[in-house]
Each structure stands twice: as structure tokens, then as C-alpha cells.
Amino acid sequence: MAGYGIETVSVGVKDIILPGDMKIILAQVVEAEKAAQANVIRRREETSATRSLLNTARVMENNPVALRLKEMETLERIAERINKISVVGGLDQILHGLINIQPKI
Q1: Residue 44 within any structural domain of the chain
Q2: What distance in Å separates the CA atoms of residue 23 and residue 29, rounded to the nearest whole number?
Q3: pTM for the full model?
């Protein structure tokens, strides 16, 4: 190009048009990479959740008040799904009765 009086400073590619098969293969590669990244994120979240549960268990193991609060929180979640509750024997009876529920055979 110097023969025509033009100096080339840089050359770049702006737009590439791939054949149909190459587009499909490239799309599959990108999809596989995204699936792998999602899998890594999912495993990190599962590990984090497991660690949190373990820490909660350790706290409750050494602190009966924390265990009691967790029991009451669970009872509250159960009660949200029930229209009417009749309490006989007090709160202790409910908590211990829930723990000892046996399925009917």
C-alpha cells in the first residue's frame, strides 16, 4: 500500500460471518461453558448452606436457649399452614409431641 502513498497503522476485523455449522458449534461451546459456570456457583452455594447449617447446629448444641428458639421458629412455620390449633398440655407438650410424631401404618 506504500506504493499508492497509503501507510497502514493497524488492521482489525470488525465482523466475522461464520458458516452455519461453525455457528452451531460455537453456540454449543458457549452454552457448555455457561452450564459449567452455573454448576460451580450452585456447588459453592450448597457448600455455604451446609456450613451455615453446621454452624447453627454447633450453636444449638452448646446453647439450649438457641435450640428452644429454633424449635419455636419451626413451630411458627408449621402453624402458618394450619387454620386452627387446640393446645392441650402447654407449649412443652406441643414441642415434644411434634418431635415424637409417628406415621400411621
Answers
A1: yes
A2: 10
A3: 0.47
What separation in angstroms does the CA of 45 have from each of 34, 39, 58, 59?
17, 10, 20, 21
d(CA 69, CA 79): 15
- 70-105: per-residue pLDDT in tens? 888 888 888 788 777 666 666 676 666 665 555 555
Residue 55 contacts residue 48 (beta carbons within 8 Å): no
What whole-number distance in Å separates Cα of residue 64 and Cα of residue 72? Answer: 12
Q: Is residue 6 part of a domain?
A: no
Range of the domain at 57: 18-85
Q: Rounded to an integer, what distance in angstroms lies between the CA atom of residue 36 and that of residue 44?
A: 12
Q: In Å, what is the CA distance from 38 to each residue of 35, 41, 43?
A: 5, 5, 9
Q: Is residue 11 part of a domain?
A: no
Cell of 13: 476485523
Our count of domains for the chain comes to 1
**3-class SS of residue 99:** helix
